[in-house]
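Journal club prep, notes for RB
We'll compare a predicted complex against what the paper describes. Inputs for the GCB case:
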Amino acid sequence: MKWSLLLAVLVTASADRPKRARLADDGVFASLQPQDSEYRELRSLDGVWQFRLAPRADPERGFRGLPMPVPSSYNDITEHASVRDHLGWAWYSTEAWVPRSWAGQRAVLRVGSAHYTASVYVNGALVVTHSGGHLPFAADVTDRLQPGQANLVTVAVNNTLTDVTVPQGRTVYKDNNTNYVYPAGYATLEYNFDFFNYAGIHRPVVLYTTPPTFIDDVVVTTTLENDGTATVKYHVSTSSRLSDDSATIEVSLATPDGSVMAEAAGSTGSISVTAPQLWWPYLMDAQPGRQYTLEVRMAAASGARDVYRQKFGIRQFSWNATTLAVNGRPVYIRGFGMHEDSDLRGKGLDLPLIVKDFNLIEWVGANCFRTSHYPYAEEIMDAADARGILVIDETPAVSLDYSATAGDDRLLNEHLAALDGMIRRDKNRPSVFIWSLSNEAKTSQPEAVPYYTRLVNYARTLDGTRPITAVLNTYPDAELVAPLIDVVCANRYFGWYSDTGHTEVIELQSEHFFTLWHETFHKPVINSEYGADTVAGLHEEPTFVFSEEYQTQLMARNFHAFEAMRARGWFAGEMIWNFADFMTKQDTTRVVGNRKGIFTRQRQPKMAAHLLRSRYWGLARLTDWPDLPLPADLMFSDSYTALDDDQCPAP
Ligand code: GCB
């Protein structure tokens, strides 16, 4: 490893760092997922990289070289609290061999995500800076890479959050505190959101080639026509490193089983599909998640050729004041709030975990999750598309307080950039059902109205085919943003954060609260969070907070209310918080993380998972598929879809 070169990078880094251009990054467009094709070559740089932390007081001096896996959060990989709790820059580097055959091609370096701010260098030269975790960014590195030799790739990441990052946080200097004594310069990162601020290179790093003139983006939308056909509209954009080159486009459309059924020419077009094989959510059809492929072929005057294969589903979402529908059929959300979170890798991509999580989602009989509280990895979204799991796709705007930045657009611009990156990345995904602008922002402050008007308008200019929400934790009488959005998603922890220990009030309170949302705003309403912290294996009867019995009892009480409201037509779904236990900062209210999971952090079921499974399968049968055979090993009957007072008696 060329440490001398890395140190040279470290020394020049801060002086060299350019200002970021918003909305677009100073890199290249990163929304098309990299793929191999007959004209493109993809190389993974994932593996064990060299890693150094920069001391906060002296960020230009790296120290302590360590092996570090990529992708992964770095926090939980070592035995050092100083690494776990590090604040500031961390430096990664690796060597990437590039074959001679890449000479003459365009080369792109793409990072799936790095949290929070990143600067990327190739052979010591800065190629891109990016701020915001959870979304990809890329740089054209054609002029920096040396084909036929090893190239040094260096990525610096900084986890510092401020008033104008999304999410927000602040570095609190404590050494001038008058009540407690701290070492000189002592500071900690403080933030209001309820998950650990994991940092590092969280998603795959790849190098890939394209021809000098290349396919830059593909947009596909689908509509269902009254005569039973479907219309597939596409738009292809191309770009070039050459000053003068023109390209022609041809496309072919392949059915889910791979047979080509239509051809078209031109960068924009429309294809009619008879007897379309629709994309359906899980348990709404015997074959959920069916996807077509649009093969896009480019031929340029320069002789360059490119091919990109874009998957998509033929399906149409619709919504009105009461109902959400897929392909004209009302859909009731049986879902989860989730996190990208697991032992050791923190928020790092982990394929065994992803496959296991989707197996569990299917086992429970859920049909939806929310990417609480940031856009998830493309590999997770691929699984949702393929397995028919609906997604509420959320920006990283969790617990924002924009009043702190009144009169300053930097926070809004960062938020718009994240929204832009999320919608451009996920626009073609059949699973993405609703765009969520934020979670639990201060939506009853007057500043919220102009702020959210900008966000909503921007989202609608990028995509008019999906409804928009912002997940709310206000009360209907104080809420200011709900009139701007299409679906009300509201979080409320009856029997947990209020009336702790009193499950007997939940039914009444939940029904009252969610009914008020609908009556005030006349929109479909989803309970987007409810739940209770539960230590797996802790049992108390009669129920007591933190026990498995309390979690299940709290759920059963909520189910009563959900059933009553579902019958009224405007209650569009329930999403338990959370799929699995997850890590948070150290806090007196968190016992090594948030324990509201239905599964443990190791993905083993708590009692609650069995209860939820019986409800979700029962709901699927009631709402989507009357003859749906229930799993033979279902532990309870589907009684929670047909509750009466005997099954859940009042105390
Ligand atoms: C919420 C937040 C979520 C928390 C959850 C909790 O309202 O949206 O991020 O983790 O409550 O458990 O307190």
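Talking point for the session: Residues 1-25, 643-651 have pLDDT under 50 and may be disordered.
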